[in-house]
Amino acid sequence: MLTPEVAVDLVVEALHIVMVLVLVLVIPGLIMGLVVALFQAATQINEQTLSFLPRLLVTLFAIILTGRWMAGYLMDYCVSIFTRAATLVG
Questions:
Q1: Which of 28, 61, 72, 82 is deepest in the core (most CB within 10 A)?
Q2: What is the pLDDT of residues 36-51, one digit of tens each?
Q3: On the CB side of 65, how many CA atoms lie within 13 Å of its CA?
């Protein structure tokens, strides 16, 4: 039976998975943004488009490196939800 406690557990687990998947993609971009900002501060180059391309490339590289793991992680969650669905409904 779907009780409020079970619903909260499902939402917490879903939010945890979303946070993990987003952090895997955002943190490399943040680090690259910091490196580019330090470079811009050191050289006094104030070009705003300079920071966009490195962050984009690092994010795409992170997707390439962790895409298979992220897809597997998400599929494991989906399988567990479908497995629990039979017990939650009846």
A1: 28
A2: 999 988 988 888 778 8
A3: 9
Answer whether residue 90 shows pLDDT above 80: no
- Distance spanning both ends of the chain, measured CA to CA: 6
Rounded to whole angstroms, the Cα distance separating 37 from 3 reads 49
- For residue 50, what are the CA distances in angstroms to 40, 63, 79? 9, 21, 42
For residue range 23-35, list pLDDT tens digits in order: 999 999 999 999 9
Q: What is the pTM of this model?
A: 0.78
Domain boundaries, the chain: 4-89
- What does 15-70 look like in DSSP terms, one character per residue? HHHHHHHHHHHHHHHHHHHHHHHHHHHHHT---GGGTHHHHHHHHHHHHHHHHHHH
Side-chain-side CA neighbours of residue 44 (13 Å) = 0
